Amino acid sequence: MPLKLYRSKGGSIWLYRGTLAPGDRLRGSTRTANRQIAAQIISEIETRYWKRHLDGPQEVLTFPMAVALYLKAGKSDRFIDKLEDYWKNAKIKDMTVGAIKQSAIDIYPNVSGATRNRQVLTPTLAIINHCAELELCPPLRMKKRFSFERKIKKPITLEWLDAFCASADLQLAALATLMFATGCRISEARRLEWYDIDFQKRTVLIRKTKNKRQRLPHMPQRLLLALAQLPRDERPFAFAFTTAREAWERIAKAAGIEVLTFHSCRHGFATKLLHDGIDVVTVAKLGGWESAQQVLATYGHAKDDPKLTDGLFDERLTEPKVITNEINSLDKKV
């Protein structure tokens, strides 16, 4: 039975209803008052339905449709705009590994392999494989990604944070303090809602983490005061990533400090705790890392002080003046 057009009583918009296959009753709105356009719309609906019914959902699943499903599931929209524009007419079944890698080159011709991996390959595969989990298409795997030279991420220090906050507005100062004090990522900070913050218990609930495990870090007093000063008319950090990054870099330059990334705060969180003598297992738990090995391999940064070996003989416990006098007396004997 084909779909039929009808209007609700007193309505001007054409609606449709009908049963195309046993048990599959469809109904909805064409969102138009023009009957000719409405007829074309239900014809397309019927065509898509039978193509999907006979050939499988992958025959009609387009990349924009896949993006909509991905975002509806609450996934991150970061880097997606350019991908959706590039693949706006593409069906998922036609997106091969080679074509996706070429899209990274086309979209970002003058960037590193790491950027192409992060901003094209990773989100594109995530969108496709989300649809695969919904049984709308086969999963897609990419064995080899773009090669790149792995750079050491420099951690922020408390001195860097102090200088940054002195030049920043309340919101960005609170953002930097939050990421340094809790080790949260910029994506996690941007999703934060006011109901996630408990000022009485001094905790911040961090949801939708990278490893899909919620965590509840403690709020040091400095972070509590920074968050308490923010207005409540919207989320604490409801701004676009690019807007925040540009402001972040501008403030660092104005403060006369090195321009470091958002993620340097997470590195600073781990490094400061390790240098303060907190064991690596505890640091991993506090920062939401899956293992202590991950902290040591990526987030732990060595102290840049060759004189630390003095501590092998407790030399730092000796008064500097005494050491100087002993050296001078040796020089006289020589």
Textual characterization of the structure:
The protein is mostly helical. It has helices spanning 35-55, 63-72, 80-86, 97-107, 113-133, 158-167, 170-182, 186-190, 221-228, 241-255, 263-275, 280-287, 292-299, 320-333, and strands at residues 4-7, 14-21, 24-29, 197-198, 203-204. The strands form two sheets. The chain has a three-stranded antiparallel sheet with strand order 1-2-3, covered by helices on one side. Helix 2 (63-72) packs across helix 5. The longest helix has 21 residues, at 35-55. It is elongated. It starts with a strand and ends with a helix. The model has no long low-confidence stretch (mean pLDDT 86).
Compose a concise summary of this entry.
With 334 residues, the protein is mainly alpha-helical. It has helices at residues 35-55, 63-72, 80-86, 97-107, 113-133, 158-167, 170-182, 186-190, 221-228, 241-255, 263-275, 280-287, 292-299, 320-333, and strands spanning 4-7, 14-21, 24-29, 197-198, 203-204.
C-alpha end-to-end distance: 110 Å
Radius of gyration (Å): 28 Å
**Which sequence of SSEs, written as H and E, runs from N to C?**
EEEHHHHHHHHEEHHHHHH
The whole-number mean of residue pLDDT values reads: 86
If helices are DSSP runs of H or I spanning 4 or more residues, what is the number of helices?
14
Shape by Cα distribution = elongated
- Specify the structural class: mainly alpha
Tell me the strand order in the biggest sheet. Answer: 1-2-3
Largest beta sheet, briefly?
3 strands, antiparallel
β-strand percent reads 5-15%
What is the share of helical residues?
40-55%
Number of strands: 5
Q: Outline the low-pLDDT stretches.
A: none
